[in-house]
Amino acid sequence: MSRPKIIAGNWKMNCTPAETKELITSLIASEKSESEIVTIVCPPFTSLSVASELLSESSIKLGAQNLSEHESGAYTAEISAGMLIAAGVKYVIIGHSERRQYYHENDSLINAKLKAALNNGLLPIFCVGESLKEREAGKSQKVVSGQLLNGMDGLSLENMRNLTVAYEPVWAIGSGKTATPKMAQDMHKYIRENLAKIEPAIASSTPILYGGSVKADNAVGLFSQPDIDGALVGGASLSADSFMKIIEAA
Ligand code: PGA
């Protein structure tokens, strides 16, 4: 089955509304109208409304970096799925390793967030990946399969069809160390085998993105692998030039 190629930029805690305007204006200027690549930008919450306005005529889609598992109420500083939709957001990153590591998000919270997103019509980019310690202990597959199984627990088939998975080995994020195309492909294939065990109907259609120090010069090798359907890009998504080069490589 043919799957869409997706390149998503995770801006993390970067870009004020003014900087967002500048970056999105440059992206729109170099956007290729005939491109079949699904391009997504995920600015911080405070830049979503300016980004949404700027992207209204563009094929570039808007994503957020997190959401609350709750619908509304007394949850100071949280942002609900409904609020994101009202701000023009279509995609949301869930379970990023920085959320897992620094904000103690565990598999059961991530599962609740996936349900909140999907039940409200947002499209999650569900992140999984092992740490260096786990890889060195030979536990990469066990960690990733557990994150998939627990994160997707209780999702309906209809909801699972709207998932994109991102494999991001923690040791490759922001470190300049990318997994080799073979290492990444082996894990992507393993993820697809796990998806088949969880729900056979989604295994071949679910896009699986690679993330971790993706740059224009390593993107070609990664994207030539059969189970790598695009990338979740951090640092290199903060410059229109380097982000566009990755899109061109897809
Ligand atoms: P990086 O980040 O490309 O800067 O390594 C990727 C990510 O954390 O999504």
Biggest beta sheet summary: 8 strands, parallel, barrel
Query: What is the percentage of strand-forming residues?
Result: 5-15%
Q: Which structural class is indicated by helix and strand composition?
A: alpha/beta
At the first level of CATH, what is the class?
Alpha Beta
**End-to-end separation:** 18 Å
CATH topology: TIM Barrel
Counting H and I runs of at least 4 residues, what is the number of helices? Answer: 11
Q: Regarding quaternary structure, how should these chains be classified?
A: single chain
Helix content: 40-55%
**Major sheet: arrangement of strands:** 1-2-3-4-5-6-7-8
Give me the CATH superfamily. Answer: Aldolase class I
The mean pLDDT is: 96
So, CATH architecture? Alpha-Beta Barrel
Succession of helices and strands: EHEHEHEHHEHHHEHEHEH
Low-confidence stretches: none
Q: What is the domain tally?
A: 1
SS elements, strand count: 8
Task: Assign an overall shape.
Answer: globular
The unique ligands bound to this protein are: 2-phosphoglycolic acid
Whole-angstrom Rg: 17 Å
Précis, in short:
It is built from eleven helices and eight strands.
Question: Which descriptors apply to this entry?
Answer:
8-stranded parallel barrel, binds 2-phosphoglycolic acid, TIM Barrel
Characterize the structure shown.
There is one protein chain. This protein has helices spanning 17-30, 48-54, 81-86, 97-102, 107-119, 132-136, 140-151, 157-160, 181-198, 216-223, 240-249; strands spanning 6-10, 38-42, 61-64, 91-94, 123-128, 164-167, 208-211, 230-233. The longest helix has 18 residues, at 181-198. The chain has 250 residues and is of the alpha/beta class. It contains 11 helices and 8 strands. The relative contact order is 0.15. It has an 8-stranded parallel beta barrel, surrounded by 6 helices. The two termini are 18 Å apart. It has one domain: TIM Barrel (Alpha-Beta Barrel). The site of 2-phosphoglycolic acid (PGA) has 13 residues, from strand 8.
